[in-house]
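Before the break, one more example. Copy the sequence into your notebook; we will annotate it together after we see the structure.
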Amino acid sequence: MRPANDKEKRHHRTAQGRLRRMRYERIVTGFDKRPAIMLGLALAVGMAAVYSLSPLHSDLQEGVIAPRNVYSPRDDTWQDEEATEEAREQAAQGVTKIYVGQRSEAYQEMSKRLSGIMAAAEMTAEDLRLSREERVSDRTTEDESAEDDGEGPTDPIIQAGWDTLDPIARPPLDAFGFVVGMATEDRAAFREACQRALSRVNEEREVRDDEMDAARVHARERIGYWADVRALGIPNVAGVRNALVQVCEACIVPNSIYDHVATQAERDRVSAEVKPIMKSVKRGELIVAQGTVVDAEDIRQLRALGMVASERTDWVARLLDFGMAIFALILTLLLIHHFEPESLAKTRRLAALALLIAVPTIAFNVLLNQDNLPYAGYALTQFAVLAATLLLGHFSAACLQGILLVCFMLVSGPHSLHGMWAVLAGGVAGMLAKRYLTYRLTQVTLIGLASSVFAFVAIGFVDLYLERRAGLSGETFSAADLAARARWALLAGLTGIFCGHLAARMLEYSLETVTDMRLLELSDPSHPLLESLLAKAPGTYHGSLIVSSIAGNAAKDIGRKYEALLVRVGALYHDIGKMHRPHLFVENQAGRANPHDTMSPTLSARSIIEHVQAGVDLAEEHRLPRPIVDCIREHHGTTLVAYFYHRAQELGHDRDDESGFRYPGPKPRSVATGVLMLADAVEAAVRSLQDTTRNAIVSQIHRIIEGKIADGQLDECPMTMREIKAVEASLTKSLLGIYHSRIEYPDANEPTNARTPRPRAEAASDEGTAPSP
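Here is what the structure looks like once it is written out:
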């Protein structure tokens, strides 16, 4: 049907818009945002790690004019690779070559060469003699005389004998011919002279295999000298001298061999001993002046500081940084999922965890080039870990510190001992601060000051260590420097504590969690709800105090020390709904008439059950934390109000219809609410006993707990049977100390012999009244 007028049209459009909004809200509400949060966190952490590799002055190149002054963003020291390599090359070149002496082998080789030359000369002389005899028999004397005049070193026979020698060990042809022409006796004397000359050369002179030319020149000079002074036993005749020198020169071999392997090893050793040449700059030091030409040295300094890009983009390093950040994040989430799954189960808690990881990681990048980076890292980590400890738990906080440590190292570089120590110290300070933190501003300030002292000592210790390791003499620990460090430490400690404190206060309500600080505040008896409970329902108030005590002890006894405070405070508020109609509950009647005597069982049960919802409404009105509201809502689960149910049966009520006599639930879904349910139930049951003997109390507690288990009230509670048994033992111990049998003292006027003490049971509830639910 179409709208008839403008008013109906507007109403129709409004209804359609409302319908669209409802559809959108259903879609958004039904959409699981956790994968999107994890993906966004992974991208933020990975990109932050990669961004640290990006240069700050990518427009500066060698040969261009600097458009601005460029200053060092921090104190830094790096190794000058080129200068170090040059110094190492010079040191290696200064190493002398290493030679291995082989004089004995060299003398044997020289003797072998000399023997070869002399043997060839003997054979050639014999061939020449035979050839001459043949010519004498075939020719006349005149022809022979003509032939004899034509004989010389170039005779074909001499040439043939010379050719038989090894080319690398033969003298010149004329010297060989001269030796051939000697008489046999002279040739023998010549050989002995050569042998003596070679022996003396081998003994006196180191002949290196890579300096043979110089060795031959020296040998020629020495042998010539020895021949001139007749030290070799031959006549000082020009022809003999020259032949001796040339034959010996052909026989010389090296007696010292170059050892390339040993020399290179020595050069490598000497090169390795050269210390790296380090260069350093101070924060604010001018590196490139505006208007000057950027040279290679400027580029090297800027590259060492990470202010310009490397010669090539190292995509492998970027991918490795990204991969390590993602791997660390995945490992962190897996650990939290295994040990504290509730931190990831809810979207808001996961979002808080992602925020506490992403914000410090991004801030690391922003503050990377500041000289106060260690103190900034301390403050950021302390803030994040403190907030995580308060909001998410100790294990999640420890995992958070681990991922922040990885991110800081990826951002600041693998050699940042300052950064690693600052993150560790900040995380420890954050976890320790949680134990003593309250909402009192004075207490928060004192903890911040203590954290500042811890930061000053911890980071100063690293400074001192690095200074001593570098061999400095205390230059960095001047009075002005200490004052600056103290200021940064004070700022870091106070900032970390206050930011963590404020973050916890702002986020705990939206995260539906509660911090120890908030619990301590709620445990104050001056809280408006507790004051109202004491004024309107004093019996309920004092019963809540007892339940708070025994439930907290039970939580501690099963090892749930972090839930113990929550159980104690939750027990204080679990029955605040009874303030709505306090006179309906037996502990508040104080001898007055019981209203349930005139009410139907159904109405009585409904009025008793309503105190749970009334308590939830009061808690939400006063903005109590969600875990406290859960304690109020779940402490009865779906328990049957048995007293009025049985009265209704006596009046003819259908036995199968329990709907009007059961609490609406839900059943306990946490350890805290499970312990509270058991403590509240057994305390009420024991208080109603007339017989408070030990056996009666133990039997009653066991019966109540077994009844809760049989009724399925603990089916959704993560407690194990072992823990339930431990809770039973703890509650039994506590209640035996409270509701024990006492001695009734006789009247003072009664005779002494009439004083017969007898046990008396102090009943917790009057007979005929409705038991406290």
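Residues 24-30, 144-151, 752-773 have pLDDT under 50 and may be disordered. The longest strand covers residues 76-79. Try to locate both features in your own notes.
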